[in-house]
Specification:
The complex is a heterodimer. In chain A, strands 8-9-10-7-11-12-13 form a 7-stranded mixed sheet. Chain A folds into 2 domains: about 5-120, Rossmann fold; about 125-315 and about 345-360, Dihydrodipicolinate Reductase, domain 2, CATH 3.30.360.10. By secondary structure, chain A is of the alpha/beta class. The longest helix of chain A is centred in the C-terminal third of the chain and has 21 residues, at about 285-305. Chain A has helices at about 10-20, 35-45, 55-65, 75-85, 100-115, 130-140, 160-165, 180-185, 185-190, 280-285, 285-305, 315-330, 335-355, and strands spanning about 5-10, 25-35, 50-55, 65-70, 90-95, 120, 145-155, 200-205, 225-230, 235-240, 250-255, 260-265, 270. In chain A, helix 4 (about 75-85) runs parallel beside helix 5 (about 100-115) and helix 5 (about 100-115) runs antiparallel to helix 13. The termini of chain A are far apart. Chain A contains 13 helices and 13 strands. Chain B has a single domain (about 5-190, about 215-260, about 305-340), classed as NAD(P)-binding Rossmann-like Domain (Rossmann fold, 3-Layer(aba) Sandwich). Helix content of chain B is about 40%, strand content about 15%. Chain B is built from 11 helices and 14 strands. The longest helix of chain B is centred in the N-terminal third of the chain and has 20 residues, at about 85-105. The radius of gyration of chain B is 20 Å and the shape is globular. The chains are: A alpha/beta, B alpha/beta. The interface between A and B is medium-sized, with 29 and 27 residues.
Chain lengths: ~350, ~350
């Protein structure tokens, strides 16, 4: 029999976990849990999960899962992760890892001490475009990375945006880095594979784009963020933007040989090559080369669609498969703990600069 | 008598408050989450000299806010519900919020729950219509949905909400009145119910055909709610709420095109809709959900199978349609045309 999986936290993101777990034939989702029994029940009923609980200790005791997915708000991650490893579970953790960097360290320490494994849901990193970028990087096509630009757009009118805007008690407002902290993982974790410094220079600025629009919730909700990061060899820009359209998610890696542009929404990876033709000819060919790249990417996407490999959370399925395999083979988990902690550290330093009053 | 109206700032809520005032209720607490929706209630308060509307802001997901909402009320009209968004949000806004409200009512020291009347606005979506033959009449005795997980999440959450109210009613013995409106429409509301069809990209797929639309004009619906809330014989009863002289989906679409704006639509007969639904469901299973299950055979049967409707029980309560269907549609289309012109 394969791994037994359980989920604690039955909010919006739990749907994606249930669906992606269901696509992996070697594992079985045995139960879900939420402090609010109605939420646990609705998730179990909608997806036909065999059992649901409102007490995680009881679920761990009765079900004895191999892996616990923690999809609760980050305020409870430290407690639940410790509880899970104490019960012998491996942990799949929803981002952000924890409220503070020291909590992230404590989570990983407890996992390591218990001889269990953990990974964090950095799923876009395991999506097809990210893997293609990694292939280009590792094959030397880009050369050495010089600069990285990671951009994420956000829709404040979307389902999640509306949920926390309407609710002044929403857990997002209680994060030290507020809205940014809930999203920044997906910006920073695309930079850290190229920028390996433990303590890079960071300069951040955050602001409210439309200060006259009326405050939807008590307190300050900043919705635009720009960050400059500089390591010994590589620099980066990180951007969170809630007002530009379309709501995009892109990554640009400037290398000493070529530059790659990744569009995570359109699922394309395009290479901007150094020209070898002289003078005007060198300016004539690039649009055609880029067009050829886009055409190839489009056809590859059609092929993926026709083979039913074009799901929104395909990267999560791949990450889960690799994580479960690392448990079965007792091999390293798909994301190193060092990288998880570097992401967490950079995020905390950004939050400290943007919301200094929270960290006094 | 102090009345609590939850969801008072919403499309239906404002009309319910207006009808309560028209029926002589003068002590009304309007509970609303969004301060931006208070404007129309404040205007109502201005226009009715004498009665005072108490605006109470909060979120029913929070127990403390529920406790504030229910203090000293003896009639609760519960309209607040999640209408759209992620499934978890719908259940939190409709079911968790309702449970908090009921527990807050139970927890009051100065007013026993048995002396409180609770009016729940449920939905037609709770009926289990899939197993019925085409053209079957839907009344209050029609069985409830057996497989809500196979329906849309809104219907699922409304069924769970209604079950919750009946469970608490059995335990606590308060007076419960349940109204199940069909498609509530009017100025301030949307243009189309799914029962007419679906907009997919630039094309509107007209799937309702000659099925009757169980329309309930928002003023008529509000009148039904207030009528049932105040009727001594309504405790423990369920009432379907829809207007008389119901149009077909085709007529509604035709008049929309004539009075609001021209649009491209493709009519799919029911057998074609069923075939399409079966194909999409087969593909969805094969592809493990690469495309969302918007049209499944089950949902198609529920939305476009076609039924007749019966509001005789509501009439027997003394309800009369305040705005005739033809006038209600004209008023709605005028509003939608003006909205379109503004965009």
């Amino acid at each position: 029999m394969g791994l037994k999986i359980a989920i604690v936290g039955c909010g919006k993101i739990a749907d994606a976990h249930v669906e992606e777990i269901g696509k992996i034939p070697s594992v079985q989702l045995c139960a879900v849990c939420d402090l609010e029994p109605i939420m646990a029940e609705q998730l179990a009923v909608r997806y036909g999960v065999p059992r649901w609980y409102s007490d995680v200790a009881r679920m761990l005791d009765v079900e004895k899962p191999d892996v616990l997915h923690i999809t609760t708000p980050p305020q409870s991650h430290l407690t639940l992760a410790k509880q899970a490893v104490a019960a012998g579970c491996h942990v799949f953790l929803e981002k952000p890892v924890a409220l503070r960097h020291c909590d992230a360290e404590a989570i990983i320490d407890s996992v390591v001490a218990a001889g269990r494994k953990l990974t964090v849901n950095y799923w876009p990193r395991f999506d097809a475009p990210a893997l293609e970028l990694l292939r280009l990087y590792e094959s030397g096509v880009l050369g050495a990375p010089v600069h990285v630009e990671s951009y994420i757009g956000y829709d404040l009118q979307g389902e999640f945006g509306m949920a926390f805007k309407r609710d002044p008690e929403h857990w997002v407002h209680r994060l030290p880095g507020k809205l940014f902290q809930n999203v920044l993982d997906h910006v920073v974790n695309k930079i850290t594979p190229f920028l390996e410094d433990e303590q890079p220079f960071i300069q951040s600025v955050g602001w409210r784009w439309d200060a006259d629009a009326g405050e939807p919730v008590p307190g300050v909700l900043l919705d635009e963020l720009r960050v400059i990061i500089r390591g010994a060899q590589v620099s980066a820009y990180a951007t969170f933007c809630a007002h530009a359209r379309p709501v995009g998610q892109t990554l640009r890696v400037y290398g000493t040989k070529n530059t790659a542009h990744v569009d995570f929404m359109a699922r394309t990876v395009v290479l901007e090559r150094q020209q070898t033709f002289p003078s005007a000819l060198g300016r004539l060919f690039p649009p055609f080369l880029v067009a050829k790249d886009y055409l190839q990417q489009g056809l590859r996407n059609v092929n993926s669609f026709s083979h039913a490999r074009f799901h929104f959370f395909d990267g999560m399925r791949r990450l889960l498969s690799e994580f479960y395999l690392s448990i079965e083979k007792d091999s390293p988990p798909p994301i190193s703990y060092n990288e998880i902690l570097r992401v967490s550290s950079i995020m905390e330093r950004i939050s400290e600069q943007v919301y200094p009053e929270v960290y006094v | 008598m102090k009345v609590l109206v939850t969801g008072a700032g919403g499309f239906l809520g404002v009309q319910v408050v207006e009808r309560l005032l028209a029926h002589g209720y003068s002590d009304i607490r309007c509970f609303l989450r969004d301060r931006g929706k208070a404007e129309r209630l404040l205007a109502l308060d201005e226009s009715h000299r004498g009665p005072q509307l108490e605006l109470c802001y909060g979120n029913l997901r929070l127990r403390a806010d529920c406790a504030r909402a229910v203090a000293d009320v003896s009639l609760v009209v519960h309209l607040a519900a999640g209408l759209k968004g992620a499934p978890a949000e719908l259940f939190a806004d409709s079911v968790v919020a309702s449970r908090n409200l009921l527990e807050a009512l139970q927890a009051r020291d100065n007013m026993p729950l048995k002396q409180t009347r609770v009016v729940l606005v449920s939905s037609f979506g709770v009926y289990g219509v899939v197993s019925l033959r085409r053209g079957a009449r839907i009344d209050e005795l029609t069985p409830l949905e057996d497989h809500p997980e196979m329906r849309d999440t809104y219907s699922h959450s409304k069924l769970r909400q209604e079950q919750l109210f009946w469970d608490y009613q059995k335990k606590a013995g308060f007076e419960l009145v349940v109204l199940r409106p069909g498609v509530i429409y009017g100025p301030g509301g949307g243009a189309f119910s799914n029962r007419v069809g679906l907009q997919i990209g630039p094309v509107f797929f007209h799937l309702g055909g000659s099925n009757l639309l169980p329309l309930s004009f928002v003023v008529n619906c509000a009148e039904a709610i207030v009528q049932a809330a105040g009727h001594p014989g309504s405790a423990g009863q369920v009432y379907n709420v829809h207007d008389d002289d119901l149009p077909t989906a085709s007529r509604y679409l035709r008049e929309y095109k004539r009075h609001v704006k021209r649009m491209r639509s493709i009519r799919l007969p029911y057998f074609a809709t069923k075939m399409l639904a079966r194909s999409l469901e087969a593909y969805r299973r094969h592809s493990q959900g690469q495309l969302p299950g918007i049209i499944t055979p089950y949902k198609a049967a529920a939305a476009w199978g076609g039924n007749k409707f019966d509001n005789a029980k509501l009439h027997a309560l003394g309800w009369r349609q305040l705005v005739a269907t033809q006038d209600a549609m004209a008023e709605t289309f005028t509003y939608l045309r003006q909205q379109g012109a503004k965009q």
